[in-house]
Amino acid sequence: MSVIKAVVIIIISIDLVGCNTKKKPILDSSKMLIEERVEVMKKIIEPLAKIPTDILDAHYTESKIGDGRLGPSDYFFYASIKVSKGDEKKWSHDLKEPYNGVTQFASPESSKIWWLTKEKFMKLKLYETKTYFGRYNGWMAIDDANGLIYVYTYSQ
Prior knowledge:
Blueprint: H1 2-20, E1 23-28, H2 34-45, E2 57-65, E3 74-82, H3 88-92, H4 118-121, E4 125-127, H5 130-133, E5 138-143, E6 148-154
Antiparallel strand pairs: 1-2, 2-3, 3-6, 4-5, 5-6
């Protein structure tokens, strides 16, 4: 009887460990209309800061590792915010460099047409994400040439 219990415990443990290491999408703009995407982005930012300019479009995805029951969950958020050309500078006004030295390129697990390439990332200036997104880990990359703001944040 004790061998059966041990096997059951091992199987359950393997299953729980496997479930907790997979990234599960919890927020995804891919099936939303432009107005909905913009409204959700405003709801993310407005409790933390005044939005400096109109948002013309937004795309985003957030995934989570862990279920919060057997330890904490970690979150990974990626966004692209379109503003009028020239307005992106208003978003970076008074922002500091990324906290915790986070300056490495990151991208969502599944490819997104709205996300930047590593080559483009290397040419952009990075800023902190705490002001608009409430997280110290990550960066905002400002694309002055196209009126785009890229955001990568994570909790860990």
